[in-house]
């Protein structure tokens, strides 16, 4: 039987007390939740549309659209914190006790926080770059700085420069990609949400909050992750350089690391076949059925 993996054929809605969460669903089997990253014009569909059909052959695959990115309703507040709350509401709303999770960049941080704070709800965790912290490379990374510049003054040229920082192969930055990202990124409500997270003022406030006496960053709590974890990374990631992987690789008890050559921040897109193969093998291991 052919699985419908079209945009309109998979789009669903979940109504919550804070607004509507939209998501894409395809396939049957154990639930697999895909969580997207941040950045100009990002959506869950754009991050994972190329992978949906592959994983839907094995799992009930769900791509959640975070609030504030122009697809789900904007719940207000800081997009990272809102996303963490939205994931719990989403799982509760669909009656899902536990899931395997794949998180790209910001989505990886959200997924990791879910695994830390609600360990029984994550049976396997896959991250794509993003988590940890810079040890040897300057922080924030080049891609984050370009994202901040775009958020402060959104121009097409700055968008293109940021997109090039996301990939190893510049040929991936096509006119079609630029146009669809530009249209979404310059939507007033979406841009307002981005500024809550990546404006210079927002980044300065986050840095200040991190110095509070009672502040415990998520990366210092990685030892609490009980789920088997696969860290995936592009060797040439200019957003979250590879030295960021050292802390999660060491602190997460069940973590292993897979590095893709000739690959930037979007491993699931730029090294699609290798990424899908490695992740599927990890997800289908015996531990998945033993939890």
What's the CATH first level?
A: Alpha Beta
Number of helical stretches of at least 4 residues: 13
Name the CATH architecture: 3-Layer(aba) Sandwich
Q: Give the averaged pLDDT, no decimals.
A: 94
Q: Give the biggest sheet.
A: 8 strands, mixed
SSE sequence, one letter per element = HEEEHEHEHEHHHHHEHEHHH
Q: Which residues sit in consecutive blocks of at least 5 with pLDDT less than 50? A: none
The named CATH superfamily: Alpha/Beta hydrolase fold, catalytic domain
SSE map:
Elements: H1 7-10, E1 11-16, E2 19-26, E3 31-35, H2 44-56, E4 60-64, H3 79-93, E5 99-104, H4 106-117, E6 122-128, H5 142-152, H6 156-166, H7 175-185, H8 188-198, H9 200-210, E7 229-234, H10 246-251, E8 255-260, H11 267-270, H12 272-283, H13 287-290
Parallel strand pairs: 3-4, 3-5, 5-6, 6-7, 7-8
Antiparallel strand pairs: 1-2, 2-4
Helix pairs in contact: 3-4, 5-6, 5-8, 8-9
Describe the model.
The chain is globular. The chain is built from 13 helices and 8 strands. Strand 7, helix 10 and strand 8 form a beta-alpha-beta unit. The model has no long low-confidence stretch (mean pLDDT 94). The chain has one domain: Rossmann fold (3-Layer(aba) Sandwich), CATH 3.40.50.1820. The longest helix has 15 residues. By secondary structure, the protein is of the alpha/beta class. Helices cover 43% and strands 17% of the residues. It holds the Pfam family Abhydrolase_1. Keywords: Hydrolase. This is 2-hydroxy-6-oxonona-2,4-dienedioate hydrolase.
């Amino acid at each position: 039987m052919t699985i419908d993996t079209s945009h309109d054929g998979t789009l669903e809605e979940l109504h919550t007390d804070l607004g509507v969460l939209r998501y894409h669903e395809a396939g049957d089997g154990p639930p697999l939740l895909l969580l997207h990253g941040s950045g100009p014009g990002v959506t869950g569909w754009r991050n994972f549309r190329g992978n949906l059909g592959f994983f839907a052959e094995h799992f009930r695959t769900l791509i959640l659209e975070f609030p504030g990115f122009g697809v789900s309703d904007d719940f207000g507040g800081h997009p990272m914190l809102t996303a963490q709350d939205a994931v719990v509401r989403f799982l509760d709303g669909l009656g899902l006790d536990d899931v395997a999770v794949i998180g790209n960049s910001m989505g990886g941080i959200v997924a990791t926080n879910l695994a830390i704070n609600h360990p029984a709800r994550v049976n396997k965790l896959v991250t794509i770059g993003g988590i940890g912290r810079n040890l040897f490379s300057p922080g924030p990374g080049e891609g984050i700085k370009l994202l901040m510049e775009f958020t402060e003054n959104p121009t097409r040229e700055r968008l293109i420069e940021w997109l090039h920082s996301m990939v190893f192969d510049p040929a991936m930055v096509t006119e079609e990609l630029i146009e669809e990202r530009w249209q979404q990124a310059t939507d007033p409500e979406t841009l307002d949400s981005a500024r809550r997270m990546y404006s210079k003022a927002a980044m300065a406030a986050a840095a200040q909050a991190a110095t509070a006496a009672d502040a415990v960053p998520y990366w210092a709590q990685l030892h609490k992750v009980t789920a088997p974890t696969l860290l995936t990374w592009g060797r040439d990631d200019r957003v979250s350089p590879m030295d960021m992987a050292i802390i999660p690789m060491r602190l997460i008890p069940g973590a292993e690391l897979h590095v893709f050559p000739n690959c930037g921040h979007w491993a699931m897109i730029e090294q699609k076949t290798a990424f899908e193969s490695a992740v599927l093998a990890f997800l289908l291991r015996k531990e998945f059925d033993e939890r």
